[in-house]
User: Which sequence fits this backbone?
């Protein structure tokens, strides 16, 4: 069992925005952050994260809770598993009541990495290759380049140092095949890969024996998910924030060489395209993104796809393409740092890059082809923000040499404002409730004055405020930005209005109600009239019916 104090300590050190932003793309919105809800399909964000309250809530499907709840729901973990995951993500140690609960030994990865690094020093083939690519001693150390020996050597290393082999399998260091245990990396130059929290999560490896698979990565494990990771991010992170720039390239060697030449915001995808799963990571710090891809067919197609995705996500930045089979690593090796500087300082912005790419596919001197180009460019344009649609309408028209009104934009702004169906009554009542939730001490004074029956539409919510103010379902009110949080004076005013309306209605109802006897009725009417009189004087009367 994890010790209670340990859990408390963890909770006190968590930041829900930081945690959720490792899984979702969150954008600042007023005092809160917004994202598209991962728990129901949506394209306009109604998932709100509050740093002040350390909670999240989705206005679309109603899910909500704290950071631990999010981990449980998102990663499908039990409570203790979510706690452990959060602790490891945040480098926080947990203490256990029962010492028998052993945690998986992540250190195996780090130790095997050190073992491989030592072997590299004595492996001439590896060293020759690395030297031939122009990688310096400093870079070898910085990027912890290593050498994975023949399979048996890795197995022996683990066995003779008494590592838990099951853990080594779970972490993707070795595997169990028909012929017994074997190493995942055999006679390869190794590049350790780190997660965002600076902990090692796996390896990339390049063959030095001409193996068919030039590069391999660790298999998918609990800690290694290649479609979310970026090689070199942990080393580039600080500079990404500082320089407000992030260079995405295609290979490990590009990253290493770019860093070596001072372009230390470079990272690379792990043999995959840039995917939606990468976006939360590259959104961090809102840097300008530079896609640095090869000019071959695969590189161009990858750059186009990424450019579409990033422009639709309203990322700033652009694309640079390296022509003639020369990649950034080669340019650094050839001492072309100045040239690289120039290239990186003038990337082609995502939107014009994408439009050019679309139009260049067609032979636009041919009217039928031109029509197709227009249709495809138009479809893309419509997927952008209204502002960018207006901006780039002209660009498409010029490129195709047509009149601007031939390019159509998307006028039906389908961005549904949250709770557009709230009535005036809803808003009036919910704002009062929100103002109490924001400052629960107000409840004391309100308690005397307001009865739940005064709420026409939101009686249940007010009941909850009275009886269970921390109930998660109230988060939809707290986090709804359409609802105002009144100051004290305004709250008084609104309460006066609420009460006045309530007592006026009551007066009418009672006047026509035949179930009271005469005395009772006269008494009630007198009370209500007196209350209304007081309210007109601006006094909030205690509830006395
Ligand atoms: Zn939702």
Assistant:
């Amino acid at each position: 069992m994890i010790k209670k104090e340990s859990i408390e300590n963890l909770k006190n050190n968590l930041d829900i925005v930081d945690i959720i932003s490792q899984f979702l793309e969150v954008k600042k919105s007023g005092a809160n952050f917004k994202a598209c809800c991962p728990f129901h399909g949506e394209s306009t964000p109604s998932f709100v994260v509050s740093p002040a309250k350390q909670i999240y809530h989705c206005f679309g499907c109603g899910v909500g809770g704290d950071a631990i709840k999010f981990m449980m729901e998102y990663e499908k973990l039990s409570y203790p598993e979510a706690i452990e995951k959060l602790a490891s993500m945040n480098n926080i140690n947990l203490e256990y009541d029962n010492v028998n609960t052993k945690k998986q030994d992540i250190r195996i990865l780090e130790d095997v990495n050190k073992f491989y690094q030592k072997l590299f020093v004595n492996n001439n083939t590896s060293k020759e290759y690395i030297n031939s690519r122009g990688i310096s001693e400093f870079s070898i150390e910085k990027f912890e380049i290593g050498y994975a020996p023949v399979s048996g050597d890795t197995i022996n290393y683990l066995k003779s140092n008494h590592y838990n082999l099951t853990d080594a399998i779970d972490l993707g260091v070795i595997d169990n095949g028909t012929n017994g245990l074997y190493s995942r990396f055999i006679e390869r130059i190794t590049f350790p890969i780190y997660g965002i929290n600076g902990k090692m999560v796996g390896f990339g490896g390049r063959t030095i024996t001409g193996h068919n698979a030039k590069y391999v990565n660790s298999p998918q494990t609990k800690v290694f998910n290649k479609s979310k990771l970026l090689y070199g991010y942990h080393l580039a992170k600080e500079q990404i924030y500082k320089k407000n720039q992030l260079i995405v390239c295609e290979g490990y060697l590009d990253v290493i060489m770019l860093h070596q030449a001072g372009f230390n915001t470079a990272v690379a995808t792990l043999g995959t395209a840039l995917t939606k799963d990468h976006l939360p990571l590259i959104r961090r710090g809102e840097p300008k993104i530079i896609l640095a891809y090869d000019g071959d067919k695969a590189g161009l197609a990858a750059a186009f796809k990424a450019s579409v995705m990033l422009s639709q996500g309203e990322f700033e930045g652009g694309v640079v393409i390296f022509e003639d089979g020369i990649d950034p690593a080669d340019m650094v090796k050839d001492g072309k740092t100045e040239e690289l500087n120039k290239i990186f300082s003038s990337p082609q912005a995502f939107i014009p890059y994408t439009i050019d790419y679309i139009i260049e596919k067609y032979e636009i001197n041919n009217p039928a082809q031109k029509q197709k180009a227009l249709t495809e460019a138009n479809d893309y344009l419509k997927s952008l923000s209204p502002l960018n649609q207006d901006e780039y309408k002209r660009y498409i028209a010029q490129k195709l040499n047509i009149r601007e009104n031939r390019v159509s934009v998307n006028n039906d702004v389908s961005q549904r404002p949250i709770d557009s169906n709230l009535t005036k009554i809803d808003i009036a009542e919910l704002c009062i409730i929100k103002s109490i939730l924001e400052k629960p001490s107000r409840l004391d004074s309100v308690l005397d004055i307001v009865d739940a029956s005064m709420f026409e539409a939101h009686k249940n919510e007010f009941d909850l405020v009275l009886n269970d103010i921390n109930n998660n379902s109230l988060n939809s009110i707290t986090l709804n930005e359409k609802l105002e949080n009144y100051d004290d004076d305004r709250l008084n005013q609104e309460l006066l209005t609420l009460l006045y309306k309530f007592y006026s209605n009551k007066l009418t109802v009672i006047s026509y109600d035949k179930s009271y006897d005469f005395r009772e009725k006269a008494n009630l009417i007198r009370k209500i009239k007196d209350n209304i009189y007081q309210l007109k004087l601006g006094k909030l009367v205690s509830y006395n019916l």
Remarks:
- Residues 387 and 393 are 10 Å apart (CA to CA).
